[in-house]
Amino acid sequence: MEWWVPRHRVAPLPQYPIAPTLRHFTAPAPFFSLGNPACSHIFGLVIDPTAIIAPQAKLDPTVEVGPYTVIDAGVEVGAHCVIGPHAYLTGLTSIGVRNRFFAGCVIGEAPQDLKYQGTPTRLRIGDDNVFREHVTVHRSTKVGEETTLGSHNFLMAHCHVAHNCQVGNHVIIANGALLGGHVSIADRAFISGNCLVHQFVRVGTLALMQGGSAISKDLPPFTVARGDNGICGLNTVGLRRGGLTAAERLELRQLYHALFRKGTKLSAAVAAAKTRFASPPSLIMLDFLRAAKRGVCSDAGLGGEAKAN
Predict the structure, then answer these.
(1) Which domain holds residue 101?
(2) What's 93's domain CATH number?
(3) φ/ψ of residue 282, rounded to 5
(4) Angle at which helices 280-290 and 266-273 pack, to 10 degrees?
(5) 218 located within any domain
(6) 18, 152, 245, 286 from 240: Cα distances, Å
(7) H-run or E-run covering 71
């Protein structure tokens, strides 16, 4: 007997000897496929009876699924994940362990790209991430590419991660923030509420975007974004929490002044800084700037876009 309900027709819900709330029950093997012969027999799962799960979906036996959630055939979910009510997981989506999806999340849906041709594309998610209410994460646009999220990230309500984004580890994306396609977010970055990140933009490690700021140029590591394509100094609190020593923080302040507050063209300032600054954080900053292709956010106090490029 198969209990999966195709979405193209309406069928009566299966009758279980439990109330229609999140409870523990025994499901038959055809309901899931774990790819493990030892797990092909009947085993226990925590699945709400109103959930619609494709028989080809692969769920670890410890996964919990809430009411009215839909999980499509190409989804793989690791151990101890909790998927809340009314969530939708689709695409070729691979999810690690101990992830939490709150109500209304849409994970792995098709990219919002007019060039997308409906091919089966991928989303890969690491471990210990939190996706709050109505978070949307889209899969990549082409076969052979991936949208990726690392581990220990916190995505707050209504934020959006577009196709082909690369999000590192320990990243916070606050309520309503929007990441365009092909955006790269390095480890420990903090994207505040209602921030906008243009497609193909890079955000460096331990960078912070103030609420409502918008960038269409690269945001250097350790800096704070303010307004439109502006920066206003270093993320001093993040540097301390990130374990940088007092000497490293002092050198970064000196480097920031040399790069962004002397009014020198950025390429010339970077070339000159190579001979003066050698700490690991300083080298991270300089390597990031040398790799910039879209331009770099400029110091808001100078107000001169040309001075930063």
Answers:
(1) 1-185
(2) 2.160.10.10
(3) -65, -40
(4) 150
(5) no
(6) 52, 19, 8, 20
(7) strand 70-71
Judge whether 213 and 250 are in contact, CB under 8 Å: no
Please report how the helices 280-290 and 246-260 are oriented relative to each other, as an axis angle in degrees rounded to 10.
30
For 216-262, write each residue's pLDDT tens digit.
999 999 999 999 999 999 999 999 999 999 999 999 999 999 999 99
CA distance 100 to 66: 11
Q: Take residue 171 and report the two structure tokens written for it.
A: 């990243």
Specify if 281 maps to a domain.
no
The two tokens of residue 100 are: 């939490």
Residue 36 in domain: yes
Q: What is the pLDDT of residues 87-104, one digit of tens each?
A: 999 999 999 999 999 999
Beta strands in 210-302 (DSSP E): 214-215, 223-226, 230-234, 298-299
Query: Does any domain span residue 199?
Result: no
Mean pLDDT (whole number) for 125-153:
98
Q: State the Cα–Cα distance between residues 30 and 148, nearest whole angstrom.
A: 30
Measured between alpha carbons, how far is 88 from 299 in angstroms, rounded to an integer? 41
pTM to 2 decimals? 0.84
Domain count, the chain: 1
Q: What are phi and psi of 135, to 5 degrees?
A: -70, 140
Q: In which order are the strands placed within the sheet that holds 214-215?
A: 52-53, 70-71, 88-89, 106-109, 136-138, 160-161, 178-179, 196-197, 214-215
Q: Tell me the CB-side half-sphere exposure of residue 19, using CA atoms within 13 A.
A: 2
pLDDT tens by residue, 252-307: 999 999 999 998 899 999 999 999 999 999 999 999 999 999 999 999 876 544 34
Instruction: Give strand ranges (E) for 110-261.
Output: 122-125, 130-131, 136-138, 146-149, 154-155, 160-161, 166-167, 172-173, 178-179, 184-185, 190-191, 196-197, 202-203, 208-209, 214-215, 223-226, 230-234
